[in-house]
Amino acid sequence: MAGGLAPWAIGTDTGGSIRQPAALCGIVGLKPTYGACSRYGMIAFASSLDQAGPLTRDVTDAALLFAQMAGHDSRDSTSLEHRWQIDRPRAEDLNGVRLGVPAELTGSEGGVDEGVRERFEEALELARRLGASIEPCRLEHAPHALSAYYLIAPAEASANLARYDGVRYGLRVDGTLDLISMYERTRAAGFGDEVKRRIMLGTYALSSGYYEAYYGSAQKVRTRISEDFRDAFDRFDFIVTPTSPWTAFELGSKTADPLAMYLNDFCTVPMSLAGIPAISIPCGLAEGLPVGFQLAGPAFSEGRLLDVAYALEQAIGFDGSAARARREASP
Amino acid sequence: MSSRAQYEPVIGLEIHVQLKTRTKMFCGCEVSFGDPPNTHTCPVCLALPGALPVTNGRAVHFGVMIGLALGCDIAERCLFHRKNYFYPDSPKAYQISQYDVPLCRGGQLGDVRIHRVHLEEDAAKLNHLGESGRIHGADRSWVDFNRCGTPLVEIVTEPDIHSAGQARDWLIVLRETLRQLGVSDVDMSQGSLRCDANVSVRPAGTNELGTKTELKNMNSFAFLERGIEAEIERQIDLLRGGDTVVQETLHFDPRSDRLTPLRSKEEAHDYRYFPEPDLVPLVTSEEMLKAARSELPTELPTERAARFERELGLSSARARELVFRPELGEYFERVLAAAEQAGGGDGSPDPVEIANWIPQLVTQIGPDADPAQTKVAPEALAELVAMVKAKTVSRDAAREVLVLLAKEGGNPRELVEREGLGAISAGEDGLSELVDQAIAADPNAAEQVRSGNMRAIGPLVGYVMRETKGRADGGDVTRLIRERLGA
Prior knowledge:
The complex is a heterodimer of chains A (331) and B (487).
Chain A: E1 8-13, H1 19-25, E2 28-31, E3 51-56, H2 59-69, E4 98-102, H3 114-129, E5 133-137, H4 145-160, H5 179-190, H6 193-206, H7 212-235, E6 238-242, H8 258-263, H9 269-274, E7 278-286, E8 289-296, H10 302-316, H11 322-329
Parallel strand pairs in A: 4-5, 4-6
Antiparallel strand pairs in A: 1-3, 2-3, 2-7, 6-8, 7-8
Helix pairs in contact in A: 2-10, 4-6, 4-7
Chain B: E1 7-18, H1 57-69, E2 73-74, E3 77-78, E4 81-84, E5 94-97, E6 104-105, E7 108-109, E8 112-121, E9 125-129, E10 140-144, E11 151-157, H2 164-181, E12 193-203, E13 213-216, H3 221-240, E14 249-253, E15 258-263, E16 274-275, E17 282-283, H4 286-294, H5 301-312, H6 316-324, H7 326-342, H8 351-365, H9 378-389, H10 395-408, H11 412-419, H12 429-441, H13 443-450, H14 457-467, H15 474-485
Helix pairs in contact in B: 1-4, 2-3, 5-6, 6-7, 7-8, 7-9, 8-10, 9-10, 12-14, 12-15, 14-15
């Protein structure tokens, strides 16, 4: 998308996989409300979190594409009819819009790179100039989101990926005339290290005797996080955070340290657990690399969310062209 | 006290019922039996990536009907769970079932309490080529996904059953109940009704439960009874020998009546249940309950049996017998109605007596025939029973009349006349002469009766009954002989 090779794209976001790449590449990514778009046809990873959404060059394209994607699908019981019409966004100011800035996710308590923080603050200032009110807020349980996510998502994934067992679908590696060895060889050969790690995590979290301590507790944290957002939306129209704590990193630089890799999703996972919509728009460059600005709203608030993102996008005036990025990167 | 009586078996049943819906539990494929393999499949029931389940509303409706018929509490809101296990009969490698929040809880059918009733999906059918007929040692195994995703209801009883025969009888009542609901074909040979049994034994008079085993593969009523019987024997033998029962799943082999372990403990499954995220909670609305109630039969078998006992004075065994096969109960009530219509010879009709004649009728017309489809009109049977009661025909002669009725139909009074089967009454000369003949023919027996040994009277009565071809009344004959011998 950033390279101009496609007019728009559809991605799936479980813990940030639309918003993260959008942020790191300087494009727009919208993770809709859970249930806003059908999941039918999506290869399931974590069914209660997976959601499809648009990846586009600007907010207008995101709105146009989302309007086509949203709605109930009789083949997906968890999909819902979208209650509000999605129009082409037109907002020119943010008068009366209340933005909440959670300390837990914005680096005021550490964990966000300096360059990212600066671009984020600048975008907040622009929002203020457009008429938005900006105040700090609390999402008390958000720092536990990653821990809960890495129990719930792998648990569901361990079941969703169990069908790749060599019997009916996909790769089969024959065993030694024995069913179990066929399963073992097929799954050993077919999955990569990270997938195996998650399957093992999830299987463990669901095991008899550990269920309550892990999966059960994670679901409780998930409920708390939803409640935090619900409370915050009593006072604020949208919650804003950086999309990613840092800019794009080198290929392979974090594969040796899975935990560092998981921290990428620190700012995006809470919204996934709460099932609420969130959009990432580019808000400038830090050391030549794009920085993403995330806005999250209540369930099914996509219409207003896109409108506000559009007004901010116009004010930021980010040039997402590859030429600009190259220019900025070379001193 | 025999060693067998020192132990009390405790049995609970787990019954799987295939629902007679048009389509599968979570997809639109047709529910079928016996069609060419893999002709009723789609991405959902084959578990292709990206496919999602959608709950079959009709299956839920049937589930609610079953719950109501069994007197269960229907949950206002229940959940589907994933039950994870690897086996080739499960293409998703998990079964969508219900776990801690099932559709129905509690309930009772006859003398057995229901623990729970829940909805789930059936697995695919495996066909193993090779000697063993099981997956281990098979040359090749084929998977037929036609059955995969067929809606199932699982009914779990409380451990309220205490003999193999009781288990069998109860399952027959359950089958009849489900058949009358019209929710399933309930055919054990085709697998639309399947029953596993949890069996344990404990010293008689104690309350603690012993270690249980789970019995599988008992796919007929007879196998269920024999399997449980064999397992009770095995467990009692173990305990008597000072051994302990090991908790395991056993496979019943009807050819040998032997039970072999199905899964070793090492392979014991941890199903890792968790709520199915692809489905939303199932909410049972008042309209759904109303719709299910409106389709329940007016009187279920257990209700009918209770009425037969309470209002007609039938024994519980006889009442059950009549409701096991509803056509027998139906016919019984028609005979009773006919008897009431006729007013009875000497007063009101006797339901117990009429009910006692139904098994005899079954003997004549064959075990599978519906009496209403035979030549024995309910009015005819009612009249025959009245004639027996009025002693215008003896019990033995009436049986002969029943044979004729079954063969050619007609009116019992005319048949009695035509065949000369009318009762010989006590006052008739012929009978008195025959009594004399009997005493003359067996002076030894006569002497014993005279000296007070009443058991010796049998041959004398037998003589008269033989000579009258059963037309005499046994009681009258006995009385006449005793009078004659002064005993």
